[in-house]
Amino acid sequence: MAQEKPCSDLRGGERGDSQTLPAIRDQSDKGMTKQLSQLIFLTLLSTVGVLANPVSFGEGKTIARSLHAQTIEEKKQQADRLFQEGLQHNQANQFREAAQSYQEALELYQNINHRAGISRTFKNLGKISENLGDNEQAINYYQRALKIVEEIGDRARISRVLNNLGEVYRKLAQYQKAMDYYQRSLAIAKAIDDRAGMSASYNNLGIIYRSLGKYEKALDYYQRSLAIDEAMENRAGVSASFNNLGIIYRSLGKYQEALDYHQRALVIKEEISDRAGMSRSLNNLGIVAFSLGNYQEAINYFQQALEIVEEMNARAGVANSLNNLGNVAFTVGDYQEAMDYYQRSLAIKEERRDRAGMAASLNNLGSVSERLGQYQEAINYHQRSLAIKEERRDRAGVAASLNNLGNVSENLGKYQEA
Question: Which has the closest alpha carbon to 361: 374, 380, 347?
């Protein structure tokens, strides 16, 4: 059975990447002639060097507050305050408020033609759009930011925006295009001796190679990134690299090494009070426990991760943890409980317009519906998942969905014959 590509959960400002665990094949159904459709786990890596989370923006809004600023300097100061306000809203996961603050700051920066301010605001609005699932809008904002920093000649910022564009194309499964952007970013970082930028680009290239199943190459890039962060004593970067190395080792079936790296990542995240990172590490530890058949331990890790993201109102993280709890429930035969978790996860992904995540949840709902003997519902879920994968040009995902539909159709035929 073909293996599905993972969904991602991006974290602004931290390195790493976010993906889903390998699909799980069911081996316990005695009534089926073929293996059941795969489940998709949501693992959490983290990406490098980006900010904010997205919102859909209203049209025609005027900035009443900005009218009180009379001089260019006053307008710049107000724009800077609004920009910082946007950052604060973003850190509190108040994404709509963050977008509004950025839009107000943008209008003021444009009013005084403050090019650097305009470019950085476009960049953060791009990240907001990206995390809301509006990838086309994100690309538009990033391209506008890139045009300005190229005109200014700010090579460090050019490198960062190229990284952001690479991330969007990675989410769209356009891996060659993503790799091109990451390579361009890396070349600039090397030219200006930007060690943090080099680490970010190495990390992100590792993500691409992992997505392509080239684990040894991914491992090499992650280790290069780790070496730079250790030399710089960048603890957040080190923990993100540990996290990503753990995922690679899990993909290679080296579960003890995976556990070791995820535990080391968790220790650092706890020491630096990185709550979002703690949730990611707990989630990944849960996935390794699941892979080892330690289901209660996996549940404990996933529930701890869920508690953190619920406290933070981090909706993407909530959706991922709910999905993973659903996979454990499915595997131990609690199909109705699995259905509930998957439906709650899907609702959040739909709210966020996370198309890749929606495809994964619909896939899993199809699998559990089949187990419950609800064959027509299973077909409907798999067809909806297939449509999204075709739209995203996810060839491996399309193959998996077609296989799943074949299995359900076969079982539906047997049921009707009986």
Answer: 347
Q: Which residues contact 207 (CB under 8 A, 6 or more apart)?
A: 17, 19, 45, 47, 170, 218, 244
pLDDT in tens, 111-133: 999 999 999 999 999 998 887 77
Mean residue pLDDT across the chain: 84
What is the C-alpha R_g of the chain?
22
What's the CA gap between 222 and 243, in Å, rounded? 10
pLDDT digits (tens, 9 = 90+) for 140-180: 999 999 999 999 999 999 999 999 999 999 988 899 999 99
How do 36-39 and 24-26 pair as beta strands?
antiparallel
Calpha distance 287→290 (Å, rounded): 5
Residue type, 300: N
Helix (H, G, I), strand (E, B) or coil at 239: helix
Mean pLDDT across the stretch 317-322? 95
Beta bridge partners of residue 39, listed in sequence order: 24
pTM beyond 0.85: the answer is: no
Tokens coding 287? 């996935």
What's the CA gap between 157 and 102, in Å, rounded?
18
pLDDT of residue 252: 94
Look up residue 39 and give its DSSP letter. E
Residues 253/289, Cβ–Cβ less than 8 Å: no
Neighbours of 34 (CB within 10 A): 14
Task: Record the tokens describing residue 178, joined without a space.
Answer: 């993503």
Residue closest to 240 by CA, chosen among 14, 5, 55, 4: 14
Q: Check: CB of residue 247 under 8 Å from CB of residue 45.
A: yes
pLDDT at residue 35 above 60? no
Residue 324 has pLDDT above 70, yes or no: yes
DSSP 413: H
Confidence of residue 410 (pLDDT cuts 50, 70, 90): confident
Answer yes or no: is pLDDT of 267 > 60.
yes
Token pair for 306:
């869920």
Q: Look at phi and psi of residue 313 and say left if phi exceeds 0, alpha if psi is from -120 to 50, else beta.
A: left
